[in-house]
Amino acid sequence: MARRPSNDTGSRPVSMVDVARAAGVSQQTVSRVANGLPNVNEQTRQRVQAAMQELGFRPSYAGRSLRDGRYHSVGLCVNDVTKFGNLTMIDGIASAARERGCAITLVEMSKTEEFSLAEATRRMAALPVDGIIIGMSRLAPDFETFAPLPGIGTVIVTMYAHPRVTTVDSDHYGCSLLLMDHLFELGHEQIRFIGGPSFSVDEQFRRAGWRDSLERRHIKMAEPLEGDWSANSGYEAGRYLAEHDRTMTAIYAANDQMANGAIAALRDNGLRVPEDVSVVGVDDSLDDFVAHNELTTVRFDLHQRGREVFEHAVPKAGATGKTVAIRIPGKLIVRHTTAEPRV
Amino acid sequence: MARRPSNDTGSRPVSMVDVARAAGVSQQTVSRVANGLPNVNEQTRQRVQAAMQELGFRPSYAGRSLRDGRYHSVGLCVNDVTKFGNLTMIDGIASAARERGCAITLVEMSKTEEFSLAEATRRMAALPVDGIIIGMSRLAPDFETFAPLPGIGTVIVTMYAHPRVTTVDSDHYGCSLLLMDHLFELGHEQIRFIGGPSFSVDEQFRRAGWRDSLERRHIKMAEPLEGDWSANSGYEAGRYLAEHDRTMTAIYAANDQMANGAIAALRDNGLRVPEDVSVVGVDDSLDDFVAHNELTTVRFDLHQRGREVFEHAVPKAGATGKTVAIRIPGKLIVRHTTAEPRV
DNA sequence: ATGCTTTATGTTAACGTACTCATAACCTGG
DNA sequence: CCAGGTTATGAGTACGTTAACATAAAGCAT
To answer: To 10 degrees, what angle do helices A231-244 and A256-268 make?
Structure first.
């Protein structure tokens, strides 16, 4: 019984040795042809390529990775692919990865179970990844104590800074300052806040930016409302405010969807936007869904965030290796849901 | 100079050999401990585990894959991650993969370049994948002639059937029949169509369903309108119809976003929905973005689609290997944008 | 012709893992 | 006290690739 079965049956994938045998050359010559290296006779090259074609040769990722120790892929761990934040993260990282010829190895953690960074890291480390990216949309229980695996770049996408891990995120605190300053400049002071669920890291920082803006100007802060990011929750909050707060002149909703709901509620309650109440959101996510989107909002450059995340997870040769905290500023987009307050 | 450098420097990843040397056992014993195999002395096991811990051992994905010829990952190739269809595909497949302990290797093709199935397959084949899934949202130039790589499961997510490749998709033709039948039952006949861009496969089948429904009832078909899936394009189409067609009683928009835009346009032009005109969409995608979503639409079970795609791309042992064409039916969701036509 | 470079090709080793087989130590029952 | 088993461990090998080195042939200047 031959140790290496002749591969006519197709039971085993076609390797370079199979091609070499078919073309009557050494396996190393096949490798040279496969990688387009020089010093191969043109006639030989064609013979080898013909054999590759005929046998359906597919280079072994495992063999290659084992050999040169790199996977050309970056691991991405998120808890729910469909959440707007995660989706845009995937998109940004995917295009950054493509620019560098890398793939993304995506693992979705259970949407329901709580997930620890240690657990996520453990799972990702068993996969073909040169770096690990973890989206932490809610604070992990082991965030403070977490130590990244040595020898593999790790980046957490979150606003919280960490002493031993590089963190990257859009500036979910700064976006609030942009919006609040815009409202202050128009003359608003009574600015209510409709936030997302309080476990959300994005929410925590957006709310902190709202609160700090008011405190810095010594404006008394009314109770923030809590939604669930959906337009319906924004509607409910907006209705509540329309009914209970006739002193407010502006609403800051922590995302565009809730802002859109809030606007609908205000109008249903006889309040005009922006004449009676100004409304702002964050994300610039409505365009596809709403005609004539007029919402003043903040847009983040998600591709830049993707690039930053990627570069730090898979550092180029000669990178410093110091852990940093990168916050990418958003850009204020003024449309027509904000105006000077009524006098 | 030692051939295998002692790994104090940490230049090379820690291998089982390193752990074995530290624990004073053979590499094979380390393998047994790592995989939880029996016949290891409890004391030895603990010694090995301690060494693993101390050195930070991470099992080599490459070595393991090379050894047993499987990657436990499925390749997914899409052209644009953010498109609603692709996003939901990723989500569905991700959860199916998780159920089977697999990861997803995601490759985003250039959004601008036209992409061929051969090119996509070639790129995916060089990655650590046990199966290949290609999202074909527009007809690839080589669709007819395409032959999948032998020895690796291939699935194309599209409505077009293929003689040599399994194709899976939500039933973008059947959804039209569901909606049209609903409108017919209410008494509508003059039903206009606002489609997506004509290169979109989903659009082609949704439109075909609209056309065939009318033809089957011998209803004269008015010219379909073409949008770009966005609410604004739906608004423009809706406005055009409001101004030019006073005989229509219903609009079928090929997705919810355009339907939402069309509704806004109708109302801006003094037409009531559903009293004057009924409107339906597809996807059930508005809930997060619009408060009090009342749109009659079709919802697809995207997780089921993800499971089907996954199962056929990475067949279990004992699968037939026959190529099939699977179309997963949607479900009609009747809300309040449809009613009997005015008499 | 002789030595030197260039070109084409082959040989060997190494990457990390897990399977198969071998071996040694330890039991257990007669 | 030995045959027959069980348990713990190690040795060897193969998976497919590429880098480094080796060899052989051919061209070319002296």
So the answer is: 40
For residue B169, give the H/E element and its range: strand B166-170
Task: State the pLDDT at residue A115.
Answer: 84
Question: CA distances (Å), B30 to each of A128, B17, B51, B104, in order?
Answer: 21, 8, 10, 29
What predicted TM-score, i.e. pTM, was given to this entire model?
Answer: 0.92
**From the Cβ of B149, is strand C under 7 Å away?**
no
Separation between Cα atoms, residue A200 and residue A160, nearest integer Å: 12
| Tokens encoding B98 | 């998780």
CA dihedral sign, ordered B332, B334, B335, B340: positive
CA–CA distance, B278 with B228 (Å, rounded to integer): 21
Backbone angles phi, psi at A242, to 5 degrees: -60, -35
- What is the rounded average pLDDT of the residues B96-107? 90
Structure token pair of residue A72: 């050309």
Q: Which two tokens stand for residue B86?
A: 């692709």
Taking the C1' atom of every nucleotide in all shown strands and the CA of B13, the nearest one is: C16
Statement: the CB of A278 is under 7 Å from strand D: no
Helix%, strand%, coil% for chain B, nearest 5: 40, 15, 45
Candidate from A58, A65, A289 with C-beta closest to B257: A289
Single out the residue of B29, B25, B325 nearest to residue B169, CA to CA. Answer: B325
| pLDDT number for residue B216 | 97
Binary contact (B58, A108; C-beta < 8 A): no
Of A10, A152, A257, nearest to B151 by CB-CB distance is: A10
Minimum Cα–Cα distance from A235: chain B residue: B291
CA distances (Å), origin B212, targets A23, A291, A335, B218: 55, 30, 43, 9
Secondary structure (3-state) at A321: coil
pLDDT in tens, B142-173: 999 999 988 889 999 999 999 999 999 999 99
Give the span between the Cα atoms of B95 and A78, in whole angstroms: 12
Cβ–Cβ of A260/B289 closer than 8 Å?
A: yes
Q: What beta strand segments (E) does chain A contain?
A: 73-78, 103-108, 131-135, 153-157, 166-170, 191-195, 225-226, 250-253, 278-280, 297-299, 325-328, 331-333
